[in-house]
Every structure is written in C-alpha cells, then in structure tokens.
Hints:
By secondary structure, this protein is mainly β. Helix content is about 0%, strand content about 45%. It has no helices and ten strands. The chain has strands at about 10-20, 30-35, 40-50, 50-60, 70, 75-80, 80-85, 90-100, 105-115, 120-125.
Amino acid sequence: MEPMAEMEPALYVRDAWARVSPMVELAGAAYMVIHNATDADDALVSASSPAAEFVELHLSSMDEEGMMSMNQVTEIALPAHGDAVLKPGSYHVMLINLVEPLTEDTEVELTLEFTTAEPQTVSVPVLAEPPMMGDMGDMGEGMDHGMDMEEDEEDDA
C-alpha cells in the first residue's frame, strides 16, 4: 500500500444516486451520504446542476395520518466526524425543471455548497431503483417512502 499523496477532502460524498425521471417536466431527486471528516460542524447549504433549472434541498416527512409531505430546507447539518444521510423519505436534493429526463445508466453533475468547506462537484449515477449497499448504515430505512411509493402495506397501520 503506497502512502497517501493527497489529504482526503474535509467533506466527501459516497453512495450517491439519482432516481430515474420518465418526463422532463417532472422533478428529479438525488441522494447520497456526505461525510464530515473535520472537528467542526458544517452544513450543506445549496446545490446546483446543469441538469435542472432549479436545485433545492428538501426534507420529506410523514404526518400522523400517513401522508407524505416535502418541504424546502435552508441547510442540511453535517456533524463533525459524522454523516448526513440523504435518502428517500428524508433529506434529498431536488432537481426542478429538468433540462431532459433523467435516464438509467447516465450521470447528473451536482455542485454542492457548504457553510465552510469548499464546494464539491460530484457525478451522480441515475438508477431505476435504489442501490442495495450493506455499508449505507440506516439508508435502507424509509426506502418505500420515496417519490413513487410502490408498497403501501406499511402505511395502512
């Protein structure tokens, strides 16, 4: 194993993916884990992409009656030495007024802006279904509560 030539970035993105969108007029969503390797808290405060006219940070949540709602947020906290998990049914990056549909096996470029860390541009693969990765922590929770709910059995309680 050779020594590291460069230091790791203070913040880095892993397990990024965007959901396929069948039509241009529909919005798309991107998900990821952002790791903060520093001793100080930071926050994701905005994002941009050539794939969409507008890019917003959103939080999806379920109310007492089981109805999903989605609200724009001004930031997503990145705790020191911790992760911000952006996943279906929770925090995500919303791509609004797409330039063209997000199609499987393509990539979307996203530039992420933080409170203190330098901006980062990442290539996000577009997938028809969420990736199944064992090291994504609790990312699997809430997977059925994304933009296109297919399984309603859990919501009938």
